[in-house]
Design a protein that fits this description.
Length: 325
């Protein structure tokens, strides 16, 4: 069973309350602003683990300078798998100590608001549940120079596996999970032969945790400045143009290709899923392979999957009719 950096010891003798996982690749341009925003957090009990995916810019040197000024072992850099950001994030996730209280993801080019970590921890702890919890928030979407911030769109329909199977609505750069959710994700990651089928780490997190019945906290308070530029892997999808671009991707089959990969990446984790969500998984898979458009639409309706927007949901059904699901 292939595994990237399995059982890595990040070198910390004592757990920080929050571990931040940062996938780095040639991110020097905005890295210092991101690091400064960590140190400006009102919650100071954090540790940063960076997977450097073979950066050829000054990013590693920037990290070294910050590490020299930080507390001992507060910043740890490990070698990434060099197979893209998703594999890098999953490698880091799989190597976090199992009893880590809180774990979150970070992009290399955002700016966190000072309350980000404290608010997420407080919201999770307020639930007083021992079960898996995943927190995420809205963001302030900005230009590359951080100007013209606008609040990201809220979800219009409930969160859950029926949505997660066909749409990613959770911003990975805002995610925080508790120890119980981390255990679910690490078990799912360990069940993969490799990380190759996983398309996007945040989408996979949404699918695995919703499939297993985790609790989600969707916070309307933004937690960071989400910088938009040409190097974004996906970017924001709140604008009208971006929304129609996503709908076009659904109808021309791009999402169908993604669904195929997602099903492969999810399948090994099905033993952890609730019976209801196993049924949803199987019904959606049957819809994809049905021969006639009528059977595809009928099976799709039977799976009860949905996307958040009305037009986007109609595009999903249209893609079933033209056999692009």
């Amino acid at each position: 069973m292939a595994r990237d950096h399995a059982n890595l010891n990040f070198g910390r003798d004592v757990l920080a309350k929050v571990v931040i996982l940062l996938a780095l690749h040639n991110g020097a341009t905005h890295l210092s602003e991101q690091l400064d925003s960590y140190f400006a957090q009102s919650l100071k009990d954090w540790a940063l683990v960076v997977g450097d995916d073979g950066s050829t810019d000054s990013g590693p040197q920037i990290l070294q300078r910050y590490s020299e000024c930080a507390e001992r072992d507060q910043i740890t850099v490990v070698e990434g798998p060099r197979r893209g950001g998703t594999a890098n994030f999953l490698s880091l996730l799989g190597s976090v100590q199992a009893d880590q209280p809180f774990t979150c993801f970070s992009d290399q080019d955002d700016v966190w608001l000072p309350h980000k970590l404290a608010r997420a921890v407080e919201r999770i702890e307020a639930l007083e549940t021992g079960g898996p919890v995943c927190y995420f928030s809205r963001t302030l979407i900005c230009r590359e120079d951080l100007s013209n911030p606008r609040l990201s769109r809220p979800q219009s329909r409930p969160l859950g596996f029926r949505n997660a199977l066909v749409q990613n609505v959770i911003a990975g750069n805002t995610i925080m999970v508790n120890a119980a959710a981390l255990a679910v994700l690490q078990k799912a990651y360990a069940s993969l032969d490799s990380a190759e089928p996983v398309l996007l780490h945040d989408w996979w997190v949404y699918q695995i945790l919703s499939g297993t019945g985790a609790t989600f906290i969707s916070d309307d308070e933004p937690s960071l400045l989400y910088r938009q530029h040409s190097g974004n892997q996906i970017g924001a999808n709140d604008g009208v143009r971006a929304q129609f671009a996503r709908i076009a991707m659904v109808t021309r089959g791009t999402y169908g290709e993604w669904y195929a990969r997602n099903l492969v990446a999810i399948r090994p984790a099905l033993p952890q899923f609730t019976p209801e969500n196993v049924h949803v998984f199987n019904a959606f898979e049957q819809a994809r392979y049905a021969k006639s458009w009528w059977r595809r639409v009928t099976k799709l309706r039977g799976s009860c999957v949905y996307r958040q927007g009305c037009l986007s949901n109609l595009a999903l059904y249209f893609s079933a009719i033209i056999n692009k699901i």
